[in-house]
Specification:
Length: about 170
């Protein structure tokens, strides 16, 4: 019973923070709300006893939000961020809604066509052990994810170096 109450509280926080991240017009408030969403998702992982995924969520994504803070402050400056407001355009919002609707229809069509609900969701007695999830995340065989993780880490390193170069060039221009 306590797990259900804690899950309900964390879910409410995640939903509220996600809505705040989407609907606020200030960049730093949006990033802060996204940070709360990521902390909430990590809390759900810990609640489900998936400590490895919870720790990975905290270290990777919360660390990424910290990097967004640092680069936003470096690139824009503290004073510019305080008054920076994104302008909303109806045409962009309409286009985003159309793309989101197409994505939703595609996901639903694939899910229904391949009978994922009947095959996996209704078979509640089969649970994947955490050991297998861990092996899949750090394994190098077929359908394992160590190589994509390495590519992503190199890509993020390139982004960090690019951000530093851009910030250095902006300081030299002034």
């Amino acid at each position: 019973m306590a797990n259900i109450i804690v899950f309900a509280i964390i879910s409410a926080v995640v939903i509220a923070a996600a809505l705040a991240a989407v609907f606020t017009t200030r960049i730093m408030r949006s990033v802060t709300a996204l940070l709360f969403v990521l902390f909430g998702i990590a809390g759900i992982y810990f609640l489900l006893d998936y400590t490895f995924l919870g720790a990975a969520q905290l270290s990777i994504y919360a660390g990424g939000m910290t990097m967004i803070y640092i680069f936003a402050i470096q690139l824009l400056g503290r004073r510019a961020l305080q008054g920076y407001v994104e302008k909303l355009h109806f045409k962009r919002m309409f286009g985003a809604a159309v793309v989101s609707l197409v994505g939703l229809v595609t996901v639903l069509a694939v899910t229904l066509k391949n009978h994922f609900i009947n095959r996996y969701a209704l078979a509640a007695d089969t649970e994947v052990p955490m050991k297998e999830i861990g092996k899949a995340l750090v394994g190098s065989d077929k359908y394992q994810y160590v190589l994509p993780f390495e590519f992503i880490s190199l890509f993020l390193l390139a982004c960090i170096i690019g951000g530093l170069v851009v910030s250095r060039n902006q300081k030299e221009d002034k």
